Amino acid sequence: MRIRQPIVSVLGHVDHGKTTFLDKVRGTTVQEREAGAITQHIGATEVPLEALKDACSKLGCNIDFSLPGLLFIDTPGHHSFINLRSRGGSLADLAVLVVDINDGFMPQSLESLDILKREETPFIVAANKLDKIPGWRSENRPFVENIRDQSQDAKDRMTEALYEVIGDLYDRGFSSDRYDKVKDFSKNIGIVPMSALTGEGVEDLLMTLIGLAQTYLEDDLEVEEGPGEATVLEVKEEVGLGTTLDTIVHQGVLRKNEKVVIGTRNKPIHTKIKSLLRPKPMDEIRDPSERFIEVAEVGAAAGIKIVTPECEGVLAGAPIIGVGDRDLSEVMDMVRKESQADIETEDEGVIIKADAIGSLEGLAYELDEAEIPLLKASVGDVSKKDVADAVAIDEPLYRVILAFNVDVLPDAEEKLKEVSVKIFQNDVVYRLVEEYEEWKEEKKRALEEKKREKVVHPVKIRILEDHVFRISKPAVVGVRVLAGTLRPDRRLLKKNGKSAGTIKSIRTGDQSLDSAEQGEEVAIAISGVTVGRQIDEGDELYIDIPQGDASKLRDLELTYDEERILDEIREIKQEEDPFWGL
């Protein structure tokens, strides 16, 4: 057994400085420490113990840090974090959330917060772009030193911007403060003001990470020297190598020519490691053709590029497990289980698609939080079969596909033009859920309106004085709608329970109307009656509701006035049938 370095994932909204921050960590350290002290790996940066201690000592902090260093993972996007999975949960031990101190939390950083909260990953916030605050003079030195030389106006502007970040964190359920004011990092999130451009605050951030690692991790990072386990970061095409797998080794040791099992979109594949490629130290990376050196083995935790003859169907987030002296079927089962999304589905609900297992689980989690039922979940682009499955859903409100960070295949696009299936596409999970919920409310209102149109609703009208335009065949009179929504082809009812003809049309001036709302005055044509005999000026009439529709009205939302008019109609009807409407 040995202690591995903690894995630190760096997340953040696009353009908030995530890559610039990592570049500064790499560049500054290489320039200021001995050559090769920091080595950039595949999507990862190793910061050795000596470099960390050096950064800490500049801040007057001598920490007895027993871990071998930190391994930063530069995720391609905020959603990639949830694809970094190993057995038992998230692959990342810690996280740095990079936020523009001037813009605050944006959609991708807000989603990153939700992910970190769900995964219970300890993190700090890097409040970047300090150099953009008006009047702030940013220099490549610790923030706690540089703040002493700022004008009061600049300090006030920085503090005001920082309070906005603190407020956003509070709204998401986190207590936080500037890192140098936090006494207990297990209860409060530390915020490090910094400038990735100048380097100000980078050392503060590294020191804070050391504190987090000591608080949370020193007893939980033991790894065995047995067969290696890794997670795929990206699947890439490399000139001269073909398809390669950028991976993070998080357990054991992977060796060249070793047999491994890799998770894919379908069933696991059994193959052999052809090459393990590790980038040269940064100070030696000059010729792109010599970016990598081949190694015989690599142990956790490290970034490595794997070349293997068989990797078709491998996705980001897929597990790689070395076989060693274990039974192959046992390892195949391990990979199969790890490659399956841990998602509960129901007999009715929506369909979701995502780019990887972790993304799928993240979307399913958000749907569960929003109490949206899930029928089917799978990895990959939206296919024609997915559309066909959605068509078969009985409930119109669930006849949808939520597609996270995937494309719609051409045959599925064509099919969508022919059917009433709604598709939502986004690369921010909570936005995807929000868009669906907004659509669902609109759709629900539209469906309710259709139901209302089919079911005869309570309406009351009054024939206006001096507004008889025609006595009969049909009678044409002016009316005011006292309650409800008046529509054509409805029978009229008098207060004594007798028929008052059928509305043939509704007009205002020369315009024919489909309906008239409460408070409106319109002309209606009524067949089957004569003004002065069955009806007269000043009469109050009701829409005659069939017995079957009266029962259906119990399941529909009625306005207060509609409920009141329905009670009046019920009293009239129950004079002849005591059980009407019950």
Describe, in short, the structure shown:
About 40% of the residues are buried. The protein is of the alpha+beta class and about 575 residues long. Helix 2 (about 50-60) packs across helix 6 and helix 9 (about 385-390) packs parallel to helix 10 (about 410-420).
Structure in words:
With 582 residues, the chain is an alpha+beta fold. The protein folds into four domains: 2-222, P-loop containing nucleotide triphosphate hydrolases (Rossmann fold); 224-339, Translation factors (Elongation Factor Tu (Ef-tu), domain 3, Beta Barrel), CATH 2.40.30; 350-453, 3-Layer(aba) Sandwich (Rossmann fold), CATH 3.40.50.10050; 460-573, Beta Barrel (Elongation Factor Tu (Ef-tu), domain 3), CATH 2.40.30.10. Helix content is 28%, strand content 29%. The chain is built from 13 helices and 33 strands. The chain has an eight-stranded mixed β-sheet, sandwiched between helices. The protein has an eight-stranded antiparallel β-sheet with strand order 17-16-22-13-14-21-18-19, covered by helices on one side. Strand 29 (491-493) and strand 30 (499-508) form a beta hairpin. It is elongated and about 105 Å long. Residues 30-41 and 282-289 have low confidence and may be disordered.
